[in-house]
Amino acid sequence: MQKDVSTTSQGQAELSVGGMFDRIAPTYDLLNHVLSLGIDCAWRRRVARLVAAQNPARVLDLATGTGDLLIAILRERELSAEIVGLDISEEMLKIGRRKTERCEGADRARFVQGDAMDTAMSSESFDAVTMGFGIRNTHDASRTLAEIHRLLKPGGTAAILEFSLPANRLWRACYLAYLRWGVPLIGALVSGHWRAYRYLNTSIEGFHRPDAFCRLMEQAGFANVAATALTWGIASIYTGSKDKPTEGS
Ligand SMILES: C[S@@+](CC[C@H](N)C(=O)[O-])C[C@H]1O[C@@H](n2cnc3c(N)ncnc32)[C@H](O)[C@@H]1O
Questions:
Q1: Is the model's pTM score more than 0.70?
Q2: CATH number of 39-167+209-241: 1.10.10.60, 2.60.120.330, 3.90.79.10, 3.40.50.150?
Q3: Which of 11, 146, 170, 178 could cross-link with 182 by S-S, CB 3.0 to 4.6 Å?
Q4: How far, in Å, from the CA of 63 to the mean position of ligand 1?
C-alpha cells in the first residue's frame, strides 16, 4: 500500500500524489472531460492509433489512472495486444478495472498497482509503452523515462501524452488564465478538492517545455524523438523508439 503522506526536505508533511489521486478518483473522469471540453478523448485516440500502427503484442500504459488511454488502445480494431495498466493510486485503478470490464477485449487487459519510476517489471518486456498525463506527476521525469526505456524491447515505441503550454503568446495568456483561475474553481465545485486542481496548473506550468522534454528523452536513450503539438500546443504527444542493437554489437 502506498504512503498517503510524504515528508518534504523541510520536514513538512504533504499529501502524496497517489493520495491526492485516491481522493479525486470518483470525479476524475467527469472533470477531465468537462475541463477539456471532451478534447482529451480525441488526444487519447490519437495516441491509440499511433500505438496500433506499430502492431505491438504487449503494451504497458503507465499512470493508467481510470484507464481511458488503455481503453482507447483496447478499442483499436486491428490490435489484439495484451495491455497492462499500471498506476500508483488504487482508487483510480478500481475505477479503471470496472470500466474496462464492460469493454470488448477486456480479457486482454490487466491492472497493477506500482510506481512508474520503478515498476519492478522485467526489462525489454513490452513492444510499446504509453503514458497519458502521468509523467508530469512522477517526482522525476528522467527516472521515469529511463524506466520506460528499460521496459521496451529493442525496436519498441514510447508514446507520452502530456499537457504543454502554447507557443503563441496571446493563446498562452488566455490558456494560463483558464488554468490558474477557471480550472481550480470548476475543480473545487465539482470535486470539493481545490488544492488538487490548483496542483494541476502549477504542475503544468512547472513542466518541461516540449523541446526540453525531447532532450530528456534523448538523454534517456530514445532515438527518433519527436513532439507533436495538439490543439495549438495545450498538449503534446512525445514519441521515441528504442534502437535495435546493431549487428556485431
Ligand atoms: C492525470 S492522471 C492520468 C490518468 C490517465 N492516464 C488518463 O489519461 O486520464 C495521472 C495519474 O498518474 C498517477 N501517478 C502519479 N504518480 C505516479 C507514479 N509515480 N507511478 C504511477 N502512477 C502515478 C496518478 O495516480 C494518476 O492516476
A1: yes
A2: 3.40.50.150
A3: 178
A4: 4
